[in-house]
């Protein structure tokens, strides 16, 4: 009877998938990034102040974009390159899970539901949900939303939050913030809701509208990564901490939010 030596390679593969595979998977994104000297980021393309495509040069610009660039340099060194893939609230998790991007930094709140399928860095930005309404609107806070129509965006947890604080409000969900803003302008809804930083960006673009209601949720933004990428996540956390200590972080906060009317940007400072 012939010895089945072919079983040895198969056994080795099984061991790699079980015992050793976890270690390799844990280091794969960080290892590949160091080999290519590049980190591929998913960022928004329609959110002023965080990630907006500049029509003049076609480049994404905003706080999230600059954070990605700085984090990349901290992880890979001065020659490290940050590449960007445009994402939406709906597509950011699929892009990450499918391996189209190494990480997502796209106004993404850290939530228990999302942590079931992906992992997050520690929070890099403190947001909170608010309302955007026309300046002549009678709506002052979430207490005024019952019986009204509220506009949200698919894939954002702000829709679920509104259903909790104003259960009698009608909620409609659109694909992105451009569509949501157009719907508010055409009176398809009485208010648009999402995180305050995003809404202040929309208010800057649309002077006839203003942010109201304070912040009625706590929305810590995190860098999203695939599960098992512990080494890469730790590298991101270290980079953000270094930025906070050396003043880079606060300079980016002031750069993007310092001139926004009504935005108390200094409350976001970290040291």
From TrEMBL:
Alphabetized PROSITE patterns for the sequence: PROKAR_LIPOPROTEIN
Superkingdom: Bacteria
Domain Solute-binding protein family 3/N-terminal: 38-260
Segment forming the signal sequence: 1-21
Limits of the Ionotropic glutamate receptor C-terminal domain: 46-259
Keywords noted in UniProt: Signal, Transport
Entry's Gene Ontology cellular component terms: extracellular region; membrane; outer membrane-bounded periplasmic space
GO biological-process terms attached to the record: amino acid transport
GO molecular function, a single term: ligand-gated monoatomic ion channel activity
CDD domains in UniProt: PBP2_GluB
Assigned protein family: Belongs to the bacterial solute-binding protein 3 family.
Record-given protein name: Glutamate ABC transporter substrate-binding protein
Organism of provenance: Lactobacillus helsingborgensis
Taxonomy of the source species: Bacteria, Bacillati, Bacillota, Bacilli, Lactobacillales
């Amino acid at each position: 009877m012939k010895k089945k030596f072919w079983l040895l390679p198969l056994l080795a593969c099984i061991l790699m998938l079980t015992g050793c595979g976890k270690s390799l998977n844990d280091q794969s994104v960080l290892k590949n990034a160091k080999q290519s000297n590049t980190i591929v980021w998913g960022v928004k393309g329609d959110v002023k102040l965080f990630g907006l495509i500049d029509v003049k040069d076609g480049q994404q610009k905003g706080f999230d974009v600059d954070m990605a660039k700085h984090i990349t340099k901290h992880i890979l060194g001065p020659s490290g390159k940050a590449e960007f893939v445009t994402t939406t609230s709906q597509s950011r998790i699929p892009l990450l899970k499918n391996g189209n991007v190494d990480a997502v930094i796209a106004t993404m709140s850290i939530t228990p539901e999302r942590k079931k399928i992906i992992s997050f860095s520690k929070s890099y930005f403190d947001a909170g949900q608010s309302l955007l309404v026309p300046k002549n609107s009678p709506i002052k806070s979430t207490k005024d939303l019952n019986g009204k129509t509220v506009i949200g965006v698919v894939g954002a947890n702000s829709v679920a939050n509104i259903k909790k604080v104003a259960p009698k409000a009608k909620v409609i969900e659109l694909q992105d913030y451009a569509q949501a803003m157009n719907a508010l302008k055409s009176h398809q809804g009485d208010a648009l809701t999402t995180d305050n930083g995003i809404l202040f960006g929309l208010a800057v673009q649309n002077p006839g509208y203003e942010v109201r209601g304070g912040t009625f949720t706590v929305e810590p933004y995190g860098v999203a990564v695939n599960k098992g990428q512990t080494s890469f996540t730790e590298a991101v956390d270290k980079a953000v901490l270094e930025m906070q200590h050396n003043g880079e972080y606060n300079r980016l906060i002031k750069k993007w939010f310092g001139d926004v009317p009504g935005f108390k940007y200094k409350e976001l400072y970290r040291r």
